[in-house]
Amino acid sequence: MREGERVTPLELFFDLVFVLALTQCTALMYHHPTWEGLAQGMLVLGVLWWSWTGYAWLTSVVDPEEGAVRIAMFAAMASFLLVAICVPEAFDSLALEFALAYGAVRAAHIALFILASREDPALRRSTVGLAAGTAIGVRLLLAASLFDGLAQAAVWSLALFLDMAEPFFFGSEGWKLVPGHFAERHGLIIIIALGESIVAIGAGAEASLTAGIAAAAVLGVTVAAALWWTYFDVVALVSARRLARAPEGRERNELARDSYSYLHFPMVAGIVLSALAFEQAVHHGGDPLDSVNAAALFGGTALYLLGHVAFRWRQVHSLSRQRSLAALGAILLYPVALHVPALLTPALVLVLLCVLIVYEVTRFAETRERVRHELARGQVPAALAEIARMSE
């Protein structure tokens, strides 16, 4: 079993492949700027996310740098790389190859969990349930390669739903995790997703630099910084301590499953959608964004903020009204984006996020400082109570 709560260098190395997968998801949607392309990108991202979070659970149980596990992780990385390469054509010419490579990634995951559960009957039962769900999901993806259009998307959706619903069917009592490691791993993946949004801006510039592109690049980085602030200023600190204090077993496992495995997905998806729109904004320049890319930008921002709302509710059963209103504001800005130059749209998002941050920092200044100091001193119950009482 794993010892220590820090993320290892090999885990960070493994996540580099996920960086490519995120970039490829953005590329898929960029080259298919339609509602269908947007839906395909989100389905692929969901499949990739569920695979990645499975490895986050795995490396919270086993030391990925120990003995043969290290070799197995390298093999999984190679398979994940093949999956990432297939992403742009996952619904077309490389549909079968994508499914086969994805099956190899999941097979390695299950095999390592079986090894880790040799002396733990409860973990073994949970692993057997996971293997059953995984087998169904992979077979459906293989079957989906035989179809196209709406039928293919429907089979993909079913595969993703059944795979992600598996923890509800087979229970959560047997899983193990190291709270600090698990929370840090998901925090790092938020940073990776934000990094992808910055990469997208550079890709949209296409090796040229004008005053408009420079302004859009600065705005894009500032928006990424604002998204970073909304997560890491207080949310990441509180959620990590909350997970660590949860009783070991079913309660902690379900909190980790809901808060991280499920509710971090809309955050990552929102960032990826925003990254797509940033790239398109730089490319379109003075022309307005079309309806699909405008929806990606403001819908992605709303999705990210609503992920925060649901995350907070699951953690401390308190509703963040200001973030809910900010998400609504992002949706209401959608029609505006259809009539202003594309390079100005990141500025609209930035203003929205800055208003939110300034409001929270000033309105809850004393509470925010108490929360951060109480967490630093290990006074977690008091910090959670403060968070729950913050006027939304």
Keyphrases for this structure?
392 residues, 2 domains, globular
Structure description:
This protein is mainly alpha-helical. The chain has two domains: 1-176, no CATH class; 179-392, no CATH class. The protein has helices at residues 9-31, 35-58, 67-86, 95-116, 121-144, 149-170, 179-205, 211-232, 235-245, 250-262, 264-284, 291-316, 321-332, 334-337, 345-363, 365-376, 380-389. The chain is globular and about 60 Å long.
The chain-level mean pLDDT equals 88
| Poorly predicted runs of 5 or more residues | none
Kindly name the structural category: mainly alpha
Question: How many structural units, i.e. domains?
Answer: 2
What's the story with the biggest beta sheet?
none
Helix content: over 70%
Total strands: 0
Mass-distribution shape: globular
| Amino-to-carboxy terminus distance | 41 Å
Count the DSSP helices. 17
What would you say about this model in short?
With 392 residues, the protein is mainly alpha-helical.
Task: Please render the helix and strand layout as text.
Elements (H helix, E strand, L loop, with lengths): L8 H23 L3 H24 L8 H20 L8 H22 L4 H24 L4 H22 L8 H27 L5 H22 L2 H11 L4 H13 L1 H21 L6 H26 L4 H12 L1 H4 L7 H19 L1 H12 L3 H10 L3
